[in-house]
TrEMBL record:
This is Alpha/beta hydrolase. Signal peptide: none annotated. Keywords: Hydrolase. SUPFAM superfamilies: alpha/beta-Hydrolases. It comes from Parasediminibacterium paludis. It comes from the Bacteria. Transmembrane segments: none annotated.
Length: 440
């Protein structure tokens, strides 16, 4: 007979939270059966119940000890029975409780899913060491559908509940906001960094003096060990167009490498403040890589990080374009005020996810070439779409031109503006179009 683990990731707050029970066809629908009482995990706050030798098909509900305190839906209506069957091949059932029958005032209070420690001291055969892996499941995971997956590094800085001195990306809050506005949601798998092994594991080639170079093995671990396990145990969309890898700093470097090495696996890539300075081989690797797969890529850097990060990021962009990468699939973004910090990356995470998955969210896709036209003979830019404001940035992320929407959509360029620049066109729909442009 099969086994099943039920995990309740989110419950509404009540003044005193008593125990949560499973009432089902396997215990004669008892509402307060102590043998089917959930245990609260202190670290994550999740309620967990492990069942062995269950029936091939079960129906169930959650209660706080009586049918007067059973769970209800987001509108405080009584739910139909939850169901699970052996044929689903899912050994873990993830649930969110929106409301309780006896507490109708909770209807308007949103529930933000949290992350949980999924794999503790998980063995990485490629590196012969262990690592903790964290999991975020969306609020609608219980629905009959499958979900995209974003793989992230530095889990200590991604989720609350893990000690970190550097702040957080606030990923659950951002994804909850996206879900409420678009109905799109995803799974997050975040691997903790290995402290003294971090630089080694996040660098595909060794630094001239600081060593490293275990990044190839680390990405092989994600692709060949971790991802197959995720796709087996959870309801995932396993194809490349629904699989993303994302990271910052050294995590941005290794994410860029993963995109180049495994284009057939990662169709979406987020590269924030990348440490390309660690190994210049990344540029040659990008220049010689055949792009046989269509990928979407976010390249992000800030002007307050260091003197080289924006030129380094721009150099990668130009390397990709020179190698016939899909220009309209890259979102290149510089911010003069951007610092090398989790607070910066947290602000941009929402926009990055929206760009990478805009097709899946059914958002209107606007190509950069449909937005702004450069006329080199007249030294002017023509904005061909409704917009709220327009900015032109130099190669160091400094805004050199700012224009609010007006009747005239022709922008005259200064004669001394030569070389690589970036424009940002803020559309009235809320979308931001960014593109590198070479003025001559």
């Amino acid at each position: 007979m099969p086994s099943l683990t039920i995990i309740i990731t989110n419950v509404p707050d009540v003044p005193v939270m008593p125990s949560i029970y499973l009432a089902s066809n396997i215990n004669q629908w008892k509402s307060n059966d102590e043998d089917f009482q959930f245990q609260k995990e202190i670290e994550s706050g999740y309620y967990i119940l492990k069942l062995t030798n269950v029936l091939d098909e079960i129906a169930f509900k959650f209660t706080r000890g009586s049918w007067q305190t059973e769970e209800t839906d987001i509108n405080n209506k009584v739910l139909a029975n939850r169901e699970w069957n052996k044929a689903s091949e899912q050994a873990v059932y993830i649930a969110t409780i929106h409301n309780w029958k006896d507490v109708p005032a909770l209807v308007s209070k949103p529930v933000i899913p949290k992350a949980t420690l999924w794999l503790k001291d998980f063995y990485m055969p490629q590196l012969e060491r262990t690592r903790n892996v964290w999991l975020y499941l969306p609020p609608n995971y219980h629905e009959n559908c499958s979900f995209p997956v974003i793989y992230m590094h530095d889990a200590q800085n991604v989720f609350d509940g893990i000690p970190s001195p550097y702040g957080k990306w606030e990923v659950p809050e951002a994804l909850n906001n996206i879900y409420e506005k678009t109905g799109w949601s995803c799974i997050i798998i975040a691997v903790e960094h290995g402290n003294e092994f971090r630089h080694a594991e996040y660098s595909p080639w060794p630094h001239k003096t600081r060593g490293g170079g275990e990044g190839k093995k680390y990405i092989d671990f994600i692709v060949n060990t971790l991802k197959p396990m995720v796709d087996q145990q959870f309801k995932t969309l396993a194809d490349a167009q629904n699989t993303c890898i994302m990271g910052s700093s050294m995590g941005g470097l290794i994410s860029m490498y993963a995109a180049l090495q495994y284009g057939e696996v990662f169709g979406k890539v987020g590269v924030f403040s990348p440490a390309f300075w660690w190994c210049e081989e990344i540029y040659e690797f990008a220049a010689n890589q055949p792009f046989n797969y269509i990928q979407k890529l976010v390249l992000l850097a800030g002007g307050q990080e260091n003197e080289t990060i924006i030129p380094d990021t721009l150099a990668m962009y130009n390397t990709l374009i020179d190698n016939n990468y899909f220009e309209d699939k890259i979102n290149l973004d510089f911010f003069e005020w951007g610092q090398h910090s989790e607070s910066f990356w947290a602000l941009e995470f929402d926009k990055a996810v929206r760009f990478l998955f805009e097709e899946q969210m059914d958002l209107p896709v606007v190509k950069a070439e449909q937005c702004v036209i450069y006329n080199s003979e007249k030294a002017e830019l023509s904005i061909t779409i409704d917009y709220e404001k327009f900015e032109l940035l130099n190669a160091y992320g400094k805004i050199i031109l700012h224009k609010e929407a007006s009747i005239c959509n022709i922008i005259a360029l200064q004669p001394h503006w030569k070389g690589s620049f970036i424009y940002k066109c803020y559309l009235k729909s809320g979308k931001i179009i960014t593109k590198n442009i070479h003025l001559r």
